[in-house]
Amino acid sequence: MFSKSQMIRIAVLLFSLLLGSLIKPLRADEGMWLPVLLKQLNEPRMQAMGLKLKAEDIYSINKSSLKDAVVQFGRGCTGEIVSNQGLLITNHHCGYGQIQQHSSLENDYLKKGFWAKSHQEELPNAGLTVTFIIRMEDVSKQIMEGFDTVLTEASREQLVASRSLDLVRQAIDGTHYEAVVRPMYQGNAYYLFVMEVFRDIRLVGAPPASVGNYGGDTDNWSWPRHTGDFSVFRIYAGKDNKPADYSKDNVPFKPRHFFPVNTSGLKENDFTMVYGFPGRTNEYLSSYAVEQIVKHDNPLKVSLRAKRLEVMKPSMDANREVFIKYASKYSSVSNYHKKWAGETKGLLAADAIGKKQQFEAEFIRRIGADARFKTFDALLPKIKALHDTLSRFQPEADLMTEGVLTVEVIKLAQNLKELIEMKGAVFAEKMKTEQAQGWIKLLSSFKKDYYAPIDRQIMKNMLEVYMRQSVVKALPENLKQIAGNTDAIHISAVVDYMFETSILDNPEVLLGAIAMADSTLPGRLQTDPLAQCALFYNDYYRRVPGKEVQRLQTALAGLGRQYIEAQRLVFTERPFYPDANFTLRLAYGKAEGYSPSATVHYPWYTDAEGILEKYAGGNPDYELDSILAVKIRSKDFGAYADKSGKLRTCFIASNHTTGGNSGSPVLNGKGELVGVNFDRNWEGTMSDIFYDINQVRNISVDIRYVLFLIDKVAGAGHLVREMKLVR
Ligand code: ASP
After folding, report:
1. Which residues of 75-89 are buried (b: 16+ CB within 10 A; e: fewer)?
2. Which of 227, 386, 417, 570 is in the most buried spot, having the most CB atoms within 10 Å?
3. Given 331, 662, 664, 687, which residue is catalytic?
4. Can you tell me the distance from the alpha carbon of 593 to that of 253, in angstroms, rounded to the nearest whole number?
5. What is the pLDDT of residues 143-159, one digit of tens each?
6. How far apart are the CA of 660 and the centre of ligand 1, in A?
């Protein structure tokens, strides 16, 4: 038996052991590190894990380095350069919008894939850009000078904006570069990024969606995987090798660096790194924020997205033309629908709220024990109070942004607001301006991908949920009148009436009226029930829930900045990496499997056999490409097989990644390309908020599978010959 004092001592010991494990120095492999700080923070650890390069080889402004072959693809993905003629690989899901735009019933590239046989056949993509980082620089001193005097959030923001503008101007003066200043650690540091942005990017090739999206929604965010998630583009430049608008005279861009492609592959536990532009993470949130996400925000957003998907799917399955129109929209809705569901599950399974609470208890204990930290006393209570208020407004805002405002005609009305509210008399004049050209462009692309029956049903669903779940239940006057001013509004009938009497859902009519400069158009839109309802909700959101949430978020951001600074000062034993914010980062880890539960272990790679096995199960998400099937059955993998004659398809590793890392190069210790990052495992979808090295894995397509698909399935071996293969 233990005495009472022994019991207390044991309890204290156990508690401190528990805390020790909680706040143990962050395993250095977690994190998305700033390339400029690798030398200072990560180089020894990376080399011990298997890196054969120096930090200077990864990022340098004095010589060409790996960073010169990594690009931000569009606004939300990453790509890598793989030849001296600007050839670029990214994910299939990153090029999906472009592939969809070039697809039609006659040229169904989504279904059949597309491969240009020569440079002339490569397809231009208006609006698509590719961005290189020329250099990055810590400008915290310049931005934050004098910030220790108390500033309001608004005046702080103003100062940051004006100082950033000055720095950007100086940085790009006399060059063709662009620049931005981005906050790190929620605004405790600032970095300047100087960039070169290319505007003539052409589609070179993509496998059929049955390969590029093999496994569809069923496999998205999960492991094991067999998805050939890649597409190929080429950067074109002017004759001076500088960015230029599209012109048939442009020439393939000559990069400062391109990745050699390694065809020997990785072994288990080999070092890997992912270099790219991770989008958003929130690793330093309070337990109150995580609780709100888990219990309220995610469940509501998931249910709203489910209601949209459930409308799109049957119409898309029934009609190929509708499928092509909605393919890209559907996948962007379904991607985060599934992601948020997985994130919630993972956060609960990992007891992220409980662990954050324990961390906060330790934070409070440490600041209580040290007079220097007295000023941090009020931080957590203030954060809690703001979350209490936010939890009332956030659902009202989400019911709009993830609900009513996702209706396509409601978005369209917002973009045509000025036209709708215009006086008939100025209409003719306006039609001669550039703005009118903008409306024509907008309506033409709206028309290309619009199917009113889907939109109508989504509007019914969204309004129904809104009227059921909102506390405010805001209703436009005209909708009340249409419904006969009764309380029991029959949403379905009202929406039917609006669509039947409106011209807003008919881009053809709108385009015709604009082309003929028909001055009755604004008047008609001003009495158009759908247009009026749309403007009401856009305006209501901006004035009420949107504004309130914005106000609270700004206040929380200010406190969040102080909280993260406090954490850095209080927990000096662990390194802190800044949250992802679409800036260039390097993550590193190793090729390794994981165990989601005591009885299950997932190996770290898959091979092509699994494609046939999944297909045999009969789930329509596993559609089998006929040429691929023949090659797999006859084991005709050419030089791309591994030593045992198998074709590896995908692999997982413990690199800390997020959305935006889609398409990132996965590199071995020598900086050679071994894979293309495209996803995370189901248990790992929580890693944007709570990282657990034992559960979180990034998923990549093995580069040998990519080469095999290009060469042996698509017959585009000339592209492989353009690359530099190494073993
Ligand atoms: N598949 C993910 C995405 O599309 C990438 C990731 O978040 O890991 O956003």
Report:
1. eebbbbbbbebbbbb
2. 227
3. 662
4. 38
5. 999 887 767 888 899 99
6. 7
